[in-house]
Amino acid sequence: MAWFWVDVDNPPQAQYLSPIATGLRNRGHSVLITARNHQPTLDVLANRGETATPVGDPFGETTAAKVAGTLKRAANLHRLAKRTLGRPAAVVSTSRSGVLAARTLRAPCFTVLDYEGVELGIFRRSGTTILHPAVVPASVFVERGFPTERLVAFPGLKEDLSFSGLDIGSVQPAKFSFTGSNSRSIVLVRPPSETSHYRVDDSMRMLDLVIDRLAGSDELQVVFAPREPEQLRILESRDWRVPPVVLSKPLPLVELLTGVDCVVTGGGTMLREAAWLGVQGVTLFQGEMPAVDTWLESEGAIRRVGGAKDIDEIQWHRTSRSNVIAHHPEALDRVVEIVLEGASKGR
Q1: Left if phi > 0, otherwise alpha if psi is -120 to 50, otherwise beta: which for 268?
Q2: What is the pLDDT of residue 141?
C-alpha cells in the first residue's frame, strides 16, 4: 500500500479532486487531503464527506502577495509531508503551491485542468503532468508552451469526475426560502472572479446588464452565490422587485444546481457542471473562450451573452430538453489508473 497526496486550492477543485482521493482509497491506498485554509473550500470538502488538513492563509490581492503566499504555502506543504508520511507515491494537485511542493519532494505530480488560459509557467517548470478532458485538444496547451509528452487525455469532462457514481434521480433539489410566490423561475447567479489573473473587466460590465434585467423582473427569483462577501454590493446597488436570496455557505452542488432553472456565471467550473446536469448555463465571460466552453456552446449546452440583445433572448425558465452532454462513468477509473501508472514509473 502506498500513500498519495491530494491538495485542493479552491471550492471547484474540491468537487473534482475529492473523487480521485476516493478512487485511490478504493484501490487500497492511503490518501492525505490538504486544502488552503479557506472556509468555502473546506465546506465543499465537508459536503463531500472529506476532512482536509488546512494549510495556508489568504494570499492577498496584489501579484507580489500572491507569489509570496504561493511560495510560503508550498514550503508549509513540504514540511507537513516530511514530518508526517515522507515522500508520497504521487501528488494530485491543481494548486501552484501543491505542484511546487511535489517538485521539492521529487514526487510525480498530476494536475487536472480543462482551461488552457491559466498561467501554465509553474506547471510547466515543476514537471507536472496535465490530465485534460478529451474534448479539449492537447494542441491548446502545446501552443502555450506545454510539452506534449506531459499531456494525457481522459474521456468526457472533469465533471465526469465530480459526479462519478452519482444517482441524479435520487437527489432532492435544494429548497430556498422565498418571499411570496414560489412559482417564479429560479436563476442562480455566480459572479465572475474579481481577483483572478484571468479577470476581464467587460465580464463585470456584462454582469451589470444581467443584474439590471433580473432586478426589474416580477417573474424571476435570483439566488446569489457570491465568491467573496464584498460582491454583495452588486445586489445592494439595485431596487429589486423580487428580493434576491443570498447563499451564505455552499450547498451540496447537485442539490443546488438541480434546484434552479438557469445558471448565470462568469464562466468556469459551475457553468460546466450545470451543462453536465442538463441545466441551462449562461456565461458572462468576455475574454477568449476556453476550448471546453467553445465545445459546449457548439453542442448547445451553454450560451454566451455578449450584449443586451443576447440577454433579451435568454429563456430563464427550465427547458424540457434532454441532457445533450454524454456522460462518461469510466472517466474516474481512467484518471486513477493514470496516477497509479505514473507513480509506479516515478514520473
Answers
A1: left
A2: 97
| Nearest Cα residue to 275 out of 321, 223, 233, 218 | 321
322: three-class secondary structure by DSSP = coil
Q: Which of 222, 273, 221, 226 is nearest to 249 (CA)?
A: 226
Q: How big is the CA angle at 129 (ends 127 and 131), to the nearest 5 degrees?
A: 160
pLDDT, tens digit, 9 for 90 and up, residues 249-265: 778 889 999 999 999 99
> How far is the C-alpha of 51 from the C-alpha of 35, rounded, in Å?
9
The amino acid at 114: D
From the DSSP assignment, how many helices (H) and strands (E) are in the chain?
14, 13
Query: What is the pTM assigned to this prediction?
Result: 0.88
Q: Is the pLDDT of residue 347 over 70?
A: no
- Residue 125: half-sphere exposure toward Cβ, Cα within 13 Å: 9
Nearest to 1, CA basis, from 33, 24, 32: 24
Q: Read out DSSP for 124-144?
A: HHHTPEEEEETTS-THHHHTT
Residues 310, 48: Cα–Cα separation, whole Å: 36
88 and 30 in contact (C-beta within 8 Å)?
no
pLDDT in tens, 268-286: 889 999 999 999 899 999 9
The rounded Cα 345 to chain-centroid distance in angstroms is 29
Our measurement of the distance from residue 134's CA atom to the centroid of its chain's CA atoms, rounded to an integer in Å, reads 17
- Paired strand residues for 93: 7
